[in-house]
Design brief:
The protein has 426 residues and is an alpha/beta fold. It has 15 helices and 17 strands. Strands 4-3-2-5-1-6-7-8 form an eight-stranded mixed beta sheet, sandwiched between helices.
Length: 426
């Protein structure tokens, strides 16, 4: 297949939806020669923050002079974003090549009786195949959904990371924080160290699984902590403390939650360094300092500031609102807001909006899952105004806040991606 044909094939797989389970991905990878076993990996899951942590760990390894791959999801604009080597997206040609190989493997395993693999399983297999062909030192792998039954959970990493656990994907991962934590804890492997910032009800299942697997567990707030020194939208400095270790780290990512995420990433990399002396102290500092992460408190322009943030669940909405209160206190804030209909819309709205805010509701994307802007506006109340065109919503918001305020586009990573595409076309 060429690149265009590859995109059409992947889009066609979308109709098969999400089906958790390991049978399809295991059969597919076996057909491909088990490429996932040919690269050392670090595995990252969590309700929020896993993308940032994945990128930070990747950058630490890159600064160490290693050849490193990264697999993340979803993409904002192009599928290629999901598969990176040495900080660069996979080329159109290589993407078409590996997906074509995976498609042939799909056809072979289906002849043998395996069910149709999902789009995410095909992309996972393509990533592992590309990483093996590139002969990487490491690949940092972000879980797609949950952990235990996620298609990435075929690896035995050098470190496992569970950033945090809160309510999200309750239709597939469980109705309570404890049930979701059990799914996340499914990535814990025998004897492999685990780093987490989970707390409260989520900690019990993670501690139990770590004990069962005899996996050393490093908990934020107990084994290590991060303390803010200074913070702004341009970045922040914090002190990481772990036992007798105390060191200041600079990060470009704003928000108190990114101090926690950075601490988790650094500790995970330090654990990997116990097996690989090439990962050094300088790389820890430089790697996180270089990290940027799109779609989360991402400021894309100034005067007025325009921020993109996925904020697709209550925990994400909470950290976004905390950041806005911290960095934009007293400023006029105008939201462009769209969500998927299967998310906890009511709780996100309650957490995110203040009575003085203006909210323009839009569709997050053109898919069937997107909530209608009229339904969103009805839940928000009189401060909400329905917009059926994203460009019009953006221009109206810019005019309302003038140079001194803030336009915040939020509620879904799909909306962030749609907005970026729109900007590229403006």
């Amino acid at each position: 297949m060429n690149y265009t044909e590859t995109l059409a094939y992947l889009d066609g797989l979308g109709k098969f939806g999400i089906h958790l389970g390991m049978e399809r991905i295991e059969a597919l990878l076996k057909e491909l020669g088990n490429p996932e076993q040919k690269v050392r990996t670090i595995h990252v899951t969590g309700t929020n923050g896993k993308g940032s942590v994945t990128s930070m760990i990747t950058n630490i390894l890159l600064v160490s002079g290693l050849k490193v791959g990264k697999f993340t999801s979803p993409h904002l604009v192009r599928y290629n974003e999901r598969i990176e080597v040495d900080g660069k997206e996979i080329s159109d040609e290589d993407f078409a090549l590996v997906v074509t190989a995976v498609r042939r493997a799909v056809e072979n395993v289906m002849v043998k009786g395996t069910d149709q693999p999902t789009q995410f399983e095909v992309l996972t297999a393509a990533a592992f195949l590309h990483f093996a062909l590139q002969k990487l030192d490491y690949a940092v792998i972000e879980v797609g959904l949950g952990g235990l039954w996620d298609s990435t959970n075929v690896i035995t990493p050098v470190v496992s990371v569970i950033t945090n656990v809160s309510l999200d994907h309750t239709d597939r991962c469980g109705k309570t924080v404890e049930e979701i934590a059990m799914q996340k804890a499914g990535i814990i492997k025998d004897g492999i160290p685990v780093v987490t910032a989970a707390e409260g009800e989520a900690l019990g299942p993670i501690q139990a699984m770590s004990l069962f697997k005899q996996a050393p567990l490093y908990i934020y707030g107990k084994a290590f902590t991060g303390q803010e020194v200074s913070s702004s939208m341009d970045g922040q400095t914090f002190t990481l403390s772990a036992g007798d270790y105390h060191s200041n780290y600079d990060v470009k990512l704003p928000g108190a939650h990114q101090i926690l995420n950075t601490a988790v990433a650094v500790v995970a990399a330090k654990l990997a360094s116990k097996q690989d002396s090439r990962i050094n102290e300088m790389a820890l500092h430089q790697g996180v300092a270089f990290t940027k992460w799109p779609g989360r408190l991402e400021r894309i322009s100034q005067k007025p500031d325009v921020i993109l943030d996925g904020a697709h669940n209550p925990a994400g909405a909470d950290v976004l609102r905390a950041a806005l209160d911290k960095y934009y206190s007293g400023k006029k804030i105008c939201f462009i807001f769209g969500m998927m209909g299967d998310k906890d819309i009511s709780q996100v709205i309650t957490t995110l909006f203040r009575k003085e805010d203006t909210v323009y509701t839009v569709r997050a994307d053109e898919g069937a899952r997107a909530a209608e802007p009229e339904a969103l506006a009805e839940q928000i109340g009189p401060q909400a105004k329905v917009m059926h065109d994203l460009t019009t919503a953006y221009k109206t918001a810019l005019a309302e806040v003038c140079e001194d305020g803030l336009v915040c586009v939020c509620g879904s990573l799909y909306l962030a991606g749609t907005f970026k595409k729109m900007l590229l076309g403006l």
